[in-house]
Each structure stands twice: as C-alpha cells, then as structure tokens.
Amino acid sequence: MPVILAKYMGDYVGQEVTLQGWVRLKRKHGKIRFVELRDGSAFVQCVFIKGETSDQAMEDFKKLTQESSIEVTGVVQQNPRDGSYELLVKEMKIYQISEPFPITPKEHGIDFLMDHRHLWLRSKRQWAILRVRAEIIKACRDFFDERDFVLVDSPILTPNAAEGSTTLFKTDYFGETAYLTQSGQLYSEAAIAAFKKVYCFGPTFRAEKSKTRRHLMEFWMVEPEMAFATLEDVMNLAEEFVEYIVARVLDKRMEELKILERDISKLEKIKRPFIRMTYTEAVEQLHKLGSDIVWGDDFGGDDETILTKQYDKPILVHRFPASFKAFYFELDKENPELALGVDVLAPEGYGEIVGGGERSADIKHLLEKIREEGIPEENYKWYLDLRRYGSVPHGGFGLGIERTVAWICGLHHVRETIPWPRMLNRLYP
C-alpha cells in the first residue's frame, strides 16, 4: 500500500493509499464521522462510514483528540461539491493520543503564542506563511543560478563590521573579539574578482534595539554582487528580481495565499517598470504629503509607509546623501554629496525590502572615508587590497527575506515570517 503525501491525492483517485499525519479537528454528521488530517503537505478530509470503515477504526475515532498522530488507509475519492479530494477510510492506526492542545480553541495573545511558537507552527496560517517563505527562498536561488551567479558563502563570524559598529553582536573568539555578521557584502566584493557574479545567502544579525514591526535581531538576506556594474545595473537587477519572486509565489503558492486571505490583485500589479525617484524627489513628495522630514535625514518607517501608499508598485529611491550611507558607496560624479545607493520600497506601506548600490572602486576615496569615520584601517587591509589588484566598477544589494515574506503574505509584523523569531526581548523558544 503506497504511503503518499496528501497533496498528491489527485493522482490516486479510486485507488487505496495510506496517509500519515495529525488530527486538526474531528466532527460527526449523523452516522458519518470526519477527521481533518494535516500531513505537512496539505489538509485533507478523511471520512469514516459504518460498513465501509472497519469497526475498530470507528471505535478508535472516539479517542481522537486534536494533534493525535495517526495513519489512515483508504480509497481516494473526489468530492462532487467542490472538487476536493478526500479519503474514504478503511483502517486507522493510532501512534499517539495527544494531550489537550494548549493553542486552541480560545483566542490567545501574541505573547502566549510566541511562548508556544513550537506548537503555533502547526496552525494553518503559520503553515501557509512558512511555505510561502520556503518558495521565496527557492525562487531567490533559482533566479541567481539561472543567471550565472555563483553561490559563495560568506562567514557568520567576522573580525570587523560591514556597517555601523554600534549594532554588532560581540563574541569571544579564542581571546580575540569576533562579531556576528551584519552582511556578507564585503566578502562578496572579494569573490567577484574570481567569479564576476556571485551571491551569498544566510543569516545576518543586527543588535539594533528596535521594537518595530519591521525589525528582527536575526534575519536572512540574499546578497548578489556584480563586477563591471553601475548603479543602473544594480537597479535593473533588483527590479527583475523582485518581479520574479512575486510571480513565482503567485504561480506556486496560490493556495497558501488564499488561506492568508491575501489580496492577489495587488500582487498581480507587481510588473516592471517600477517607480523610480531620487532621494531629493522623494523628500519633496513627502513634504507635499505632510511629512516633516529634513533633506539629509534618512527615511523613517513612517516616511516609507507614507510614500509607498501612493503607488501600487515598488519604488526605487536612489542617490541618497552620502552623510548617512556606509563608507564603501561610490559618489555621484555630478554631485559628490550624493552616494550611488538605492533602496527598493515595497508598496502598501511595507517599506524597504532591498538596499544596495554601486561600491567605490577607488582606494583613495575609501581611505579618506575610513579615516573620516575613525574606522580602524588595519581591520580593512584585505578589503582595500581589492582596490589594488584589478579594481573595477561593481555593485550589488541585499534583499531581506522576512520583510519580503511579510509584504507578499500581507502580514502586519515580521515575527510570523521566520520559524523562530529573535526579537529585542525574545530568545525563547
């Protein structure tokens, strides 16, 4: 008897199969009994009918509780009312009768749910979110692999900061100080001289004491980097990438989006070209919309929300004041006060999901910026070497997985976008 995943039941109509999973709920309707089974791949109705189902299985049905683990064998049939597939149960094996499940049936506050994250993952909503996340991650890898980018893993433990040293997690490294990485970008800049186009993909860490709905202490980023690339190349790649991810989710995860009650029509509008504007143009528009942002200040979450609610496509904001950008950005030759950076802001108020730009290829400029900012020059000796041996224009960006999942799924907070969120006051479970 084949043991199959529930999502493949359509291939076995009229045949006898075995499913293994957990009881989501059970109910009775007259003399017929029903179990909604979840097996990780789908949710399926299992039907118990006296005369068709064994007497033992009918008796064991009475014992079942939510989250009991079972194995059911029966015939796959199609429900004529809605076209869904269900299992007419012949036999049932019980692995364990679950204790009373703490998550349901009543409503719970977010702290309770986060304390029980290990159980909350089993809910239909969380199942759907994390399957969308898995599809987004697969889409990221497929996109770059299909375009001849080489995956070059960057280290998680680093001797120095990629950006501001005030948001680093420190740890002891056999008597030396090491930091959890904020970004793999600097290492990818080294790798492009070997492979031309690379990407890294992994966890990154920011010790930023923020409690906003967009921040986590540990999050995942995919970071492409390209040799012989300008800001324009970076923006074009970012547009193509975001469009690709959304299209993939719409193609492969429509059922999950329905469970999340996501407005699909908004995602269907994510087609190139996106909206582009300079930082200066964005500030001018924000002033018209009532923001009190001052030219020279970085965008806050409220500014991004105000701006993105004006459009139904992502916005690429580029050419920021160099004063608040990292030392490694190339400067705009037409206005050296501006850095050739770009942020991609997702619509519907979700804000920044991509940050990047063109990197400085000039060792003199980098040395000036390092000395200006008081950064220990010896920590970046290897990074400066990249400008001594075959330096070329180059650039790239980082896309935050959790913010992208939140946007595509239509979630209010990023805490639901990762299996085990690490937030300012949460390290458990």
TrEMBL record:
Pfam families: tRNA-synt_2 (PF00152), tRNA_anti-codon (PF01336). Its EC number is 6.1.1.22. It is found in: Cytoplasm. Keywords: Aminoacyl-tRNA synthetase, ATP-binding, Cytoplasm, Ligase, Nucleotide-binding, Protein biosynthesis. Residues 130-429 form the Aminoacyl-transfer RNA synthetases class-II family profile domain. GO terms for molecular function: asparagine-tRNA ligase activity; ATP binding; nucleic acid binding. GO terms for cellular component: cytoplasm. It catalyses: tRNA(Asn) + L-asparagine + ATP = L-asparaginyl-tRNA(Asn) + AMP + diphosphate + H(+). Its main location: cytoplasm. GO terms for biological process: asparaginyl-tRNA aminoacylation. NCBIfam families: asnS, PRK03932.1, PRK05159.1. Homodimer. Belongs to the class-II aminoacyl-tRNA synthetase family. This is Asparagine--tRNA ligase. The gene is asnS.
